Amino acid sequence: MNEVPILKIGSTLLVSIQVELQDDTVLQLQEDLAARITRTGARGVIIDISGLEIVDSFIGRMLASVAAVSRVLDARTVVVGMRPAVAITMVELGLGLHGVQTALDVDRGLALLSPDSGAAEDVLLAAVERDAG
Amino acid sequence: MNEVPILKIGSTLLVSIQVELQDDTVLQLQEDLAARITRTGARGVIIDISGLEIVDSFIGRMLASVAAVSRVLDARTVVVGMRPAVAITMVELGLGLHGVQTALDVDRGLALLSPDSGAAEDVLLAAVERDAG
After folding, report:
1. Residue B1 forms part of a structural domain
2. Which residues are CB-neighbours of B14 under 8 A, at least 6 positions away?
């Protein structure tokens, strides 16, 4: 029982990490997630880490790599549910989760990934570009 | 790391069971869930069992008991993600998940728990009562 389930909520996939991740579990998860994005046409991936008491560089790399794979499949990744103590430890360790977007909880992650929010971002970008041009 | 995270999606709580449940984990989960329903005013609970390869009478009782506790706190429970092999084994074992509503996946569970679906059910009930009266 070392397979991490991938849940579908509308056009978003949700992965809740609750177990100590091993190398092969991570590889399996990446493969499953890529296959699932392709099959469902999902536009967003939410990774919940509220079950994790420790986020080390291994987990950090895993999250960045999942986000990178999702990105080339045209899906955005948001990491949610980080515990306060985990955030503090990560910063102390110099881990910044670069290239990975975060949100406080699943609700905010879903809001961030909703088509409306994407549209709002596009409008913002357009405005920024217009101002710059 | 034997605490099962409870995720909030709108007015629904989502629990994804991925680990072998022990007695104390189940008690902890029931307490956490009851506290969370009270705190958030959640109207629905979705329990995802897609990570489980076996559902025995212990898990069956746990699901029924979570549903019963949620019910007295005015929240409906839907069990989702049952694997086909699990369903077959459960029926062979004579376990019917009595008193527990099921749905194929999280999406359908959310649809079942949405206020509209509840309203539709009320309308249906009213119609049935009218016809009977």
Report:
1. no
2. A7, A14, A106, B6, B7, B8, B45, B46, B48, B106
Whole domain around residue A114: which residue ranges? 6-132
Q: Which of A34, A88, A92, A95 is nearest to A59 (CA)?
A: A95
Q: Is A47 on the interface with B (CB under 8 A)?
A: no
Q: pLDDT tens digits, residue range B18-77?
A: 887 888 888 899 999 999 999 999 999 999 999 999 888 888 888 999 999 999 999 999
- Produce one character per residue of B93-113: b if its CB has 16 or more CB atoms within 10 Å, e if not: eebebeebebbebbeebbebb
B106–A51 CB contact, under 8 Å:
no
What residues 51-110 of chain B have any CB closer than 8 A to a CB of chain A? 51-53, 81, 105-107, 110
- Counting the structural domains of chain B, the total is 1
